[in-house]
TrEMBL record:
Domain Flagellar hook protein FlgE/F/G-like D1 residue range list: 113-174
Any single Pfam family the record assigns to this protein: LlgE_F_G_D1
PANTHER family reported for this sequence: FLAGELLAR BASAL-BODY ROD PROTEIN FLGG (PTHR30435:SF19), FLAGELLAR PROTEIN (PTHR30435)
Residues in Flagellar basal body rod protein N-terminal domain copies: 5-35
GO terms under cellular component: bacterial-type flagellum basal body
SUPFAM superfamilies: Flagellar hook protein flgE
Domain Flagellar basal-body/hook protein C-terminal: 223-266
Record localization: Bacterial flagellum basal body
Main location: other
Protein name: Flagellar basal-body rod protein FlgG
Keywords: Bacterial flagellum, Cell projection, Cilium, Flagellum
């Protein structure tokens, strides 16, 4: 009976984490370039149950032999193994803002590959994003709305000296004093990237960024447009309701086990 407690509880914990993930997806439904997370649930290893005992052999000395009888397998519950971002491209929409940029994916050599803007986080480390909702700060640098510098191909901040600039489809930023090529990179297995707030990190997984042209990945950059979040609100709401119902079912099972345990302690024990 105690195993039933653990199995039901593990199901509740898994669905709670699943619901938290779906809630985060819904909260970012209007965040440009946001990639929805997908939970992977996995069962714990099954146990093979056996009954251990002895068997009497009809002999003069009453010989006892050990006996193992297979009962069957027992599932030990489920857990949320990990959450994997869905890097499918979101809808492209026009904004009319000069600083808004969107990457439109073309052919990629790997199905799991992704193309990203390079930015610098607060510590100056290189991070990646699909959110092209940029702006120009007071010093004339192209930055994200959180203040992170947008980097060029050499890893340097891009100085535009104002809003008078044009971005070509190959990612070249052309302004009055010159030009700079956006630091757009290709990641062969984007699923290995780790989320850090609204940015993606390749440090922990040891992922290497490549030049899209060298890797054989095609893309185009559109100015005055943004890539919308790829969260489907209707699907997310359906998944949330399903997770809630599954949580409730595990909760009822847990309550039933609790009531049975109470009877075993208070009633059956009293009869003895």
């Amino acid at each position: 009976m105690l195993r039933g407690f653990y199995t039901a509880a593990s199901g509740m914990i898994a669905q709670q984490r699943n619901q938290e993930m779906i809630s985060n997806n819904l909260a970012n439904v209007n965040t440009p370039g946001f990639k929805a997370d997908q939970a992977t649930l996995r069962s714990f290893p099954e146990l093979l149950m056996k009954q251990m005992g002895t068997k009497s052999v009809p002999t003069t000395n009453g010989l006892q032999l050990k006996e193992n009888r297979t009962i069957g397998s027992l599932s030990t519950g489920v857990y949320a193994q990990e959450s994997i971002p869905n890097f499918q491209q979101g809808p492209i929409r026009e904004t009319g803002m000069i600083t808004d940029l969107a990457i439109v994916d073309g052919e990629k050599p790997e199905e799991t590959g992704g193309i990203f803007f390079s930015v610098a986080n607060d510590n100056g480390d290189i991070r990646y994003t699909r959110n092209g909702n940029f702006t120009v700060d007071g010093e004339g640098f192209l930055t994200t709305n959180e203040g992170h510098y947008v980097l060029d191909q050499a890893g340097n901040p891009i100085q535009t000296n104002g809003l008078d600039f044009v971005v070509t489809t190959n990612g070249m930023v052309q302004f009055e004093d010159g030009n700079a090529l956006l630091g757009i990179v290709y990641i062969a297995n984007a699923n290995d990237l780790v989320k850090e707030g609204n940015l993606l990190s390749a440090d922990e997984a040891g992922v290497e960024a490549e030049d899209p042209a060298t890797a054989g990945a095609n893309f185009s950059v559109l100015q005055q447009t943004l890539e919308s979040s790829n969260v489907n609100p209707l699907q997310a709401m359906t998944e949330m309701m399903q997770a809630y119902r599954t949580f409730e079912q595990n909760q009822r099972v847990l309550k039933t086990y609790d009531e049975s345990m109470g009877k075993a302690v208070n009633e059956i024990g009293r009869l003895g």
